[in-house]
Amino acid sequence: MKNYLFVLNKSSPKYKQIYEHFKSLIEQGNVKADEQLPSVRQLAESLQVSRNTTLTAYNQLVAEGYIRGEGRKGFFVNPLEPSLHEEPPILSNKKRVEKKASVHVDFRTDAVDQSHFPLKRWRRTANHVLTLPESFRYGDPFGEMSLREQIAIYLLQSRGLRTDENAIIIGSNTQQILINLGRILREEYSSIIVEDPGFDGAREAFQFHHFSLEYFPVYRTGADLSQLNQMDSRLIYVTPSHHSPYGVSMNIQQRQTLIGWANKIQGYIIEDDYDSEFRYTEQPFPALASIDATRVIYLGNFSKSFLPGLRLSYMVLPEPLLTRYKNQFQNFESSTSIFSQLTMAKFMENGEWSRHIKRMRLVYKRKMTFLVSLLKKHFGQNISIIGEQSGLYVLIKVYLGVSEEWLIEQAFLNGVRVRPTSIYFIKNHSDDPIIKIGFSGLSFDEIEYGVHLLKQAWL
Amino acid sequence: MKNYLFVLNKSSPKYKQIYEHFKSLIEQGNVKADEQLPSVRQLAESLQVSRNTTLTAYNQLVAEGYIRGEGRKGFFVNPLEPSLHEEPPILSNKKRVEKKASVHVDFRTDAVDQSHFPLKRWRRTANHVLTLPESFRYGDPFGEMSLREQIAIYLLQSRGLRTDENAIIIGSNTQQILINLGRILREEYSSIIVEDPGFDGAREAFQFHHFSLEYFPVYRTGADLSQLNQMDSRLIYVTPSHHSPYGVSMNIQQRQTLIGWANKIQGYIIEDDYDSEFRYTEQPFPALASIDATRVIYLGNFSKSFLPGLRLSYMVLPEPLLTRYKNQFQNFESSTSIFSQLTMAKFMENGEWSRHIKRMRLVYKRKMTFLVSLLKKHFGQNISIIGEQSGLYVLIKVYLGVSEEWLIEQAFLNGVRVRPTSIYFIKNHSDDPIIKIGFSGLSFDEIEYGVHLLKQAWL
Question: Are A354 and A330 in contact (CB under 8 A)?
């Protein structure tokens, strides 16, 4: 019999080293099929370990099929094919060296204000939720009922939308909801109308299901709904309360036209009401779905109004879509954290969320006013400002005869980041470049310094 | 001019009552198009409110398009179509009356042990994460890098799988990941092989993309891989370390056969490694992907090993699928809570998670042993026990000449819930009914009482 002696170290359990050693001998072909291994006792003696240790190692090898026990005769190697591939490169331990630009102010559009977040009260609620038995289970595939009830109350009070908690589906974000919804709609519809310019993320979610897209034009003054009658699709995706990106709202006549169209052709309107809470010059407009919910699929989320990191969105489905949706997805797990759901439900129930919204409306209004006044002061007639009535960003159209790319790059070289809007436009291009400036996550000082840097970069 | 007097109450802001009053008059046709409204001053005087209040109400009506201002001439009603639909029924305030059965013990399979959860340490970590700026943003569409790094380390140490954090994609659950993955695979493949019996949730995720399904048989003794060569598909979904539901594992020869097959036909194996942490008789087997990662898509999650409510899953993608996946989904938002991700990453980094796994392996092993001994004692030759070596449930095959439905209903009538397995079987049916019994969320006392109730129900 071969000599199987090898040196044991102290870095890992002994049985594991023995197991690894034999496994590697077998895999590398150094021990042939049907060869007999030393007995449990022999191996224990030669390695100076207990028999229990060698037996544990052998049992693991037996369980995985590397060797077999033949009763009193001992242990034998099983036949095994040689390794098929080279070993992949070892996991790199060195940290990635990232290209670090010295960005001093980032007018990002994906952040909310951190300084006014009700941290203590949220923690208290979250810590309580973690003691509930529901937190240790998978949860309702369509969302926790306590949150759906709170959303129904909110939609009635703040968005004028009468619905029932059973018609509400909780998801983790708008795109994930559109992917699921698209599965149902695609059975009946093959194309959809989207806004141009419009939210690129929604377009991509529709393309996930190979919907063909028709574009209907939106201008800074509003949508051109007269184009609807020349289109073939019977589905439309819109952002009526705060157009993405122009920020314009549909008035009651446009809303009625849209609903009349959907009723006439028996189609559906997908209303993405993504940040209607933050309207500064008037109260938020009632939802489109508040006029006629039978032809409107309403989408809402807590990313802008509370915390994007929670990943909490929802939709309200009219019949018969609701029944079809529930049939399709009854055996799918929820994709949304139970903690996020239960904590948010409790927070809403206690009135904390509506207090937070009220507080943030004032905070964001002050930030918006401050940003707009600085932009006007420093850039004067070189820019025009779009969409300052609502939302967590503002657009500026820049009349300097330069490209969007140049504006973004010059800003970057001067330590300030701004975002493009060209990604939202398909055919209905703007003549001058339009830049998107988010302010929600910045302090007043940062906003001031950022505008100063933009001036240095552009003028 | 009409008399617009009405009574203001104290339940909501005055401007809002005025706005609501006029909006409803216009919608109901009680004020006609182009009719002139009282001036701001007149209305303020007749209602005994400030001019500011009436102006705010009018401005809101203007903004939404119900009325228009014509400079000094005052405010006029805009044309509006009559309401198209009856008002939907008002939101019901009464609580739903649910059919309450008196279930004393629920052998549910969707819960984890709550009593051993490291609540304090998790809270401390979670509370810290809530102070990080990352928590107030949207996050990386493919998952937070700190968590991906920790998963890469775990996979190398515990599953023998060498990978890179860039090849790891975080998702919220297995089905959501399969829906996204399916979008990529469907471009090249139209059918997939699944286990029979097998996880119904995976089948449904493949049907989401209209994959046609081929079934390959699995028995309590293991899979019959000889059938692979008669199949047309070049994709296969398997649970090699702990078959769902039988609990059997593939040995090294079967694993090699499977990998050889995938290499030969240039296909892919989807390895769902959903609960491999809990193996009681030996150490967990290395992942299939540890043998050859080029043809294996590895899926893992934290639902069984930690907390289902977190909704945290992941996959490791081989090239060229990884590049195609990242191209397809680069503009999609993450569907996973940033708090769950960052807290889990910190927890893993501190070694808390691996300590928890070790502790829970012992806890669950004791529960499993206890449950199995009770079942054997009370049911003897009337049942056989399947899959007690690993996992958070056990199957029992019942030789009483009765149906699965009868067993579940009789149990329910006696205050104990158990789960069917027939949903997992397609063609490869079992002759006698097989019942699934989960124990992870129950105490020893509950397990004992539950088995007692089952005996009352069935014998």
Answer: no
Q: Which of B166, B336, B354, B358 to mutate to test the interface with A (most CBs of A within 10 A)?
A: B336
Q: Does B136 touch chain A (CB under 8 A)?
A: yes
Q: Measured between alpha carbons, how far apart are the two ends of chain A, in Å?
A: 85
Report the alpha-carbon distance of residue B178 to residue B186 in Å, rounded: 11
- Token pair belonging to A168: 């509400």
User: And the tokens for B297?
Assistant: 């898509």
Among B83, B253, B259, select the one facing A80 at the smallest CB separation: B253
Q: How far is CA B229 from the centre of its chain?
A: 34
The predicted model scores a pTM of 0.85
CB contact under 8 A, B441 and A136: yes
B82 close to A (CB below 8 A): no
- Collapsing DSSP to helix, strand or coil, A2 comes out as coil
Q: Which of B282, B285, B305 to mutate to test the interface with A (most CBs of A within 10 A)?
A: B282
Q: Where are the alpha helices (DSSP H) in B186-228?
A: 200-208
Asked if A273 and A245 touch (Cβ cutoff 8 Å), the reply is: no
Among A60, A163, A332, beta carbon nearest to B283? A60
Q: Which residues of B touch A64 (CB under 8 A)?
A: 249, 251-252, 282, 285-286
Tell me the C-alpha to C-alpha distance, in Å, between residue B453 and each of A424, B7, B418.
62, 65, 11
Q: Omega of the bond prior to A197 within 30 degrees of 0, cis? A: yes
Q: Is A54 within 8 Å of A18 (Cβ atoms)?
A: yes
* C-alpha to C-alpha distance for B204 and B159, rounded to whole angstroms: 27
What is the C-alpha separation between A369 and A447, in angstroms, rounded?
Answer: 11
Of B114, B137, B204, the CB nearest to A136: B114
* Minimum CA–CA partner of B66 in chain A: A252
Contact of B121 with chain A, judged by CB distance below 8 Å, is answered with no
Closest CA to B314 of B161, B188, B430, B437: B161
How many angstroms away from the CA of A459 is the closest CA of chain B? 31
- Is some CB atom of chain A closer than 8 A to the CB atom of B292? yes
pLDDT digits (tens, 9 = 90+) for A277-324: 898 888 878 899 999 889 999 999 999 889 998 999 999 999 999 999
Side-chain-facing half-sphere of B344: CA atoms under 13 Å: 29
Provide the 10 A C-beta neighbour count for residue B326.
14
Which of A372-393 are b and which e, b meaning 16 or more Cβ less than 10 Å from the residue's Cβ? bebbeebbeeebbebbbbbbbb
What ipTM does the predicted assembly reach? 0.84
Q: What is the DSSP string of B91-157?
A: PP-SPP-------SEE--SSB--STT--HHHHHHHHHHHTTSGGGGB---TT--HHHHHHHHHHHHH
What would the pLDDT profile of A115-129 be if each residue is shown by its tens digit?
Answer: 999 999 999 999 999
Q: Write the DSSP string, A309-373.
A: GG--EEEE--TTHHHHHHHHHTTSPP-S-HHHHHHHHHHHHTTHHHHHHHHHHHHHHHHHHHHHH
The residues near A363 (Cβ < 8 Å, ≥ 6 apart) are A113, A116
**pLDDT at B92 > cutoff 80:** no
